[in-house]
TrEMBL record, chains A, B:
<dbReference type="GO" id="GO:0005634">
    <property type="term" value="C:nucleus"/>
</dbReference>
<dbReference type="GO" id="GO:0000981">
    <property type="term" value="F:DNA-binding transcription factor activity, RNA polymerase II-specific"/>
</dbReference>
<feature type="region of interest" description="Disordered">
    <location>
        <begin position="200"/>
        <end position="215"/>
    </location>
</feature>
<feature type="compositionally biased region" description="Low complexity">
    <location>
        <begin position="201"/>
        <end position="215"/>
    </location>
</feature>
<dbReference type="GO" id="GO:0001708">
    <property type="term" value="P:cell fate specification"/>
</dbReference>
<keyword id="KW-0805">Transcription regulation</keyword>
<dbReference type="GO" id="GO:0000785">
    <property type="term" value="C:chromatin"/>
</dbReference>
<keyword id="KW-0238">DNA-binding</keyword>
<keyword id="KW-0539">Nucleus</keyword>
<dbReference type="GO" id="GO:0045893">
    <property type="term" value="P:positive regulation of DNA-templated transcription"/>
</dbReference>
<feature type="domain" description="T-box">
    <location>
        <begin position="1"/>
        <end position="168"/>
    </location>
</feature>
<dbReference type="GO" id="GO:0000978">
    <property type="term" value="F:RNA polymerase II cis-regulatory region sequence-specific DNA binding"/>
</dbReference>
<protein>
    <submittedName>
        <fullName>TBX22 factor</fullName>
    </submittedName>
</protein>
<keyword id="KW-0804">Transcription</keyword>
Length: 215, 215
DNA sequence: CTTTTAACACCTAGGTGTAAAATT
DNA sequence: AATTTTACACCTAGGTGTTAAAAG
């Protein structure tokens, strides 16, 4: 019933767009599998705890607030989805992205070419053509309502400006290089990348978002 | 060089739109005349203090953030422009509405029908057709950088939630019925209506925004 | 002299993890 | 026992009039 922002947020750079053409850029989050997971503390890893039907619901689309915008402008900036909100409330009517807790998900980024034949101003689902979809292995995450892993809590407190009040002033801001496991994520509450790419252009699955990397 | 919100904000209701058609709704602010004013304290009124050329600059357009939206949705709600920001900085590059201090202005509301032939997504100027423009006599105001009239200060403090810290707890919230003069307005800073219509449908110049009332 | 700017305390509005309580 | 919800103190972010200083 609660909703919180996705953190860390997905940030991407795009190349290869037509500079004068108009594009919408959007994000959604799709299940990685149909398994339910539980976190095993003593081995510090997520284990399969059963099956779930994701009930074939179409994932909600979050349109980047700068949309629509020219290819030139999109390519000049880092595109940040830091206002995306996640919820576990299936009845949500605020347009937030709906996820089930204790499941694995993967964000997808969609680049949608402006088509004068359709009104894309308030798209609720992806059009049939003119869409390129990208996803990045390192952004896979697991949903939770309470953090299972203390490293995640530490990461959040150190990196999220809104959690500044919980920082230990004596400790240095934890380097993220060592955090290459799958991190739990809190789904009224936030997103934990396997790797914390500042922008996804350095990702392993695609060094250039111009090339589709899945979806 | 500063910028502040317009307050009180312009709020309107619309009727007579086609329910399924898409519309943009926008606001701009145009000069009432080419005079410069000064406030005469002992007579509590604004007097002409000279001429100014408004240098024929096209006024900036503020698109309502809900745009575009169906006629049905626009008509169901009160349309509030409470995030409009005003500035006296002619070099402003943030898209805010630029005004000169110590001048008289009047807001205009534009209802713009969606036209698939043009991309209205980020309109910077009004299209040649498909626009209806409304303005209301009672929203005329005078720009200032510092309040000239203590009644205005009182009105702002009593009605603007962000000025709560200056409220006198013993005093009752000033009724606005008595404030029918022209109120100065603070143009990094805010807008003072002659009459404070909660929504403009009760205005004297037009009881229905469907009928043009000027501009 | 008049008008504008800038720093400030005081608000609204909303994003954090925490800890206790409630739910399943 | 595991998971979710709620109230909360503590933040970020930004909108007020005030006041003193600056600018014209």
């Amino acid at each position: 019933s609660a909703r919180r922002r996705m953190f860390p947020s997905v940030r991407v750079k795009v190349k290869g767009l037509e500079p004068l053409k108009q594009y919408y850029i959007a994000i959604d989050v799709v299940p990685v599998d149909s398994k339910r997971y539980r976190y095993v503390y003593h081995s510090s890893q997520w284990m399969v705890a059963g099956n779930t039907d994701h009930s074939c619901i179409t994932p909600r689309l979050y349109i980047h607030p700068d949309s629509p915008c020219s290819g030139e402008t999109w390519m000049r900036q880092i595109i940040s989805f830091d206002r995306v909100k996640l919820t576990n409330n299936e009845m949500d009517d605020k347009g937030h992205i709906i996820l089930q807790s204790m499941h694995k998900y993967k964000p997808r980024v969609h680049v949608i070419a402006q088509d004068s034949r359709f009104d894309l101003a308030q798209i609720q689902s992806l059009p049939a053509e003119g869409v390129q979809t990208f996803s990045f292995q390192e952004t896979e995450f697991t949903t939770v309502t309470a953090y299972q892993n203390q490293q995640i809590t530490k990461l959040k407190i150190d990196r999220n400006p809104f959690a500044k009040g919980f920082r230990d002033p004596g400790r240095n801001r934890g380097v993220l290089d060592g955090l290459l496991e799958t991190y739990p994520w809190r789904p009224p509450l936030a997103l934990d990348f396997k790797a914390f790419g500042a922008d996804s252009q350095g990702g392993s699955s695609s060094s250039s978002p111009v090339t589709s990397s899945g979806g």
